[in-house]
Amino acid sequence: MEIVTEVENHMFATDLLNREMALSNYHGVNTEIIACGPNAMLEKVAQIADERGIPCQVIMEILMACGVGSCKGCAIPKKSGGYFHLCQDGPALPADLVDWEKLKRPSVIVTEERRVPVEKINMGVVLVGQSGKQLILPSPIILESGCLDEGAVIDGPVDLTYVGAIKSKGLTLEPRAGNPPPRVCETPSGMLNSIGLENVGLTKFISEQLPLRKSLGVEVIVNFSGATVHEFVEMAVKLAEAGVRVMELNLSCPNTEKGGQMFAVSYGDTEEVVAAVHRAVSEAFLLVKLSPMAPNVVDIAQAAAYSGADALSLFNTYLGMKIDLVTRRPAIGNIYGGMSGPEVRPIALRMVHLVCQKVSISVVASTGITCGEDAAEYLIVGAQAVAVGAGIFSNPNAGPEIFHGLRKIVSDYGMSDIKELVGSLIL
Amino acid sequence: MKRRYFEATVVDCQQCRQRTNDIFRLSLLINQSLEAKPGQFVTLESFCGGKIWRRPFSVYDQLQDKDSRDFSVCFKVVGENTRHYASLKLGDKISVLGPLGNPIHINENVENHILVAGGIGRAGLAYLTEELKRLDRRAIFFMAPKMIGKCSMRIGSIIVASAWRLLPKSKITCSQPTC
């Protein structure tokens, strides 16, 4: 009989099993194998057991919502068709009845030796617009409109290192005082806001806030809203005259000439306003910020792209509601408020995926980004850059943290450039 | 047996001496017996806002005394909730749903039980091995050699009953108990 005096450290449990099988005369009549571990291991054990005709049970795991047989989420495919439910039929299942092929979802994370050191990874992005116009950013992280006052940077504590650009608070032609309170409330994993575009107005912005913002040392994207097409054009021209080269049109505002319907829910209105602004300030790099409230976001995105947009900002907020139970009134004074935070991210992510499949201009994605992983999800479905909004409220270091988190993910995939992540979704 | 929803009191949460320091065993006390059999699992509540699912864990052990009201789960820290469970102390409360799933059927006619564990999978087999010991069945337990000597799980030597055959020490891949 073979006596083993040393154990090799690189062996897996299945190697030990194989060795044992070879050494002894096990057969199906008097032996049973029970295994528990990752699916790749269980599949191997199932194979070994099958080769020797030995009955084998595998204790499996899978994500489950309920554990008691209600949700039907814990489905394990059967070779004969249909599914086991792990919480009812398992957790131990007959290994020979499991369809291992259908369970395969291989990891794309590479071993450490194959990773590029993070310092060598290129994180700069170039958003390419119409007629070769470019917006070159040292980092794909942008800080969102309405979530960053200059004071938050100058007096602290918001950290702009590793941030590629910042957007200004949404401007309107005339100053606006904003909505009556309550303007903000918290939701299970996010918030609602109905600030009402409180801002100092275009003139005061150009004379006072713009220089201050420019002094912060990162690219400034000026976001603005008009009540009419003409107002959008007037603002764009004035901003261009003041030296603003990167502009973002907020189309989630009401078109007062069309009964107050949002620009961004109408194909025709979107076409009209984007084309007019593009004509008026053709040198400017134009981002167009769309609303997720449109029933046909892909069509609206295409309208903007065909009319001269250099990039799309996806998205402004989805409307939500909350009730204050003490007063039995809406928690937001304006009744509904725009939703921000992780709870809305899946909605935005799906829409970004849909749009990116149908337009070829650059996309800057936002909604619910709190960490590198969240940012990576958006890049994987096709966005070239991301904007962080409400995430900066609880974490003033969100910029650098998300940057480093995202860069690590690029490294984990064995990639050397953030560009490789864009649109790398595996279907 | 009937699944029930308990409020459990934490007895303790001990770190298992491992190659890495992220494996813990959480011991819980409830007001009646869980009546869990090997292979079954429980779900624990989520303490982290935004995470709405209960978390499933195999029952690691349960004293066989029919009145015993305590049991434990063994887990690896992989996220916010497991990190929180690792910090639970004597007297803390946690809701438990169980016992869930089907018990593993121990076939009367089987002479040799071969158990194979990969990674934290050994937590899923622990209760079964205790039961096999209790029933005086012949069994051998395989897990990756890198766990030898460093693993502290209540597996113990489970080459039981009459000697299976002479096995040199190096083939027994789990060593000291006490987790």
TrEMBL record, chain B:
Domain FAD-binding FR-type: 3-106
Alphabetical list of InterPro entries matching this protein: Cbr1-like_FAD-bd_dom, FAD-bd_FR_type, PyrK_electron_transfer, Riboflavin_synthase-like_b-brl
Source organism of the structure: Candidatus Portnoybacteria bacterium CG11_big_fil_rev_8_21_14_0_20_44_10
Protein name from the UniProt record: FAD-binding FR-type domain-containing protein
MF GO annotations: oxidoreductase activity
Upper lineage: Bacteria, Candidatus Portnoyibacteriota
Superkingdom in the source lineage: Bacteria
